[in-house]
Amino acid sequence: MMISASAALWFLPLVLPICLYVCFTDMRGMRITNPAVMALFVVYVAIGLLALPFDAYLWRYLHLVVALVAGMALNAGGAMGAGDAKFAAAAAPFIHLGDLRFLMALFAANLLGAFVAHRIAKHSALRRLAPDWMSWQSGAKFPMGMALGGTLATYLAIGVFFGR
Fold this sequence. Notes:
single chain, about 160 residues, mainly alpha, 6 helices, about 70% helix
């Protein structure tokens, strides 16, 4: 992995609770809240200065812009929710560009795993633990925050152990 282990270690403790919150709120209400997205952005702004070389820190803001534009296009086409697009944009600066291929594979695995786990829980006794969650009645829609949050948290956790 190209992310440095020290940068991943700086980010992970603050990003992990946000990712878990995003998974929870997206399953409960089928929405990723703006405060969660802003919190993720604030973590990058504050901790990125400590964790990354200054030039890399500044360049990664471009990741945010590119992800936001792509997310807006996907949202306009109905392929992605607005909260998902905003979360992906706020998460983009945490990713080292050299890890993009790895991240895409990790996202695919997370998406598949989250989808299967959600569908199993939806049709099992686990549903009784949270009977009012909107994601159970969402039809074909899926709470993508599970996969997005899971991907970012897993990427940083793997980066702690296998980063350069």
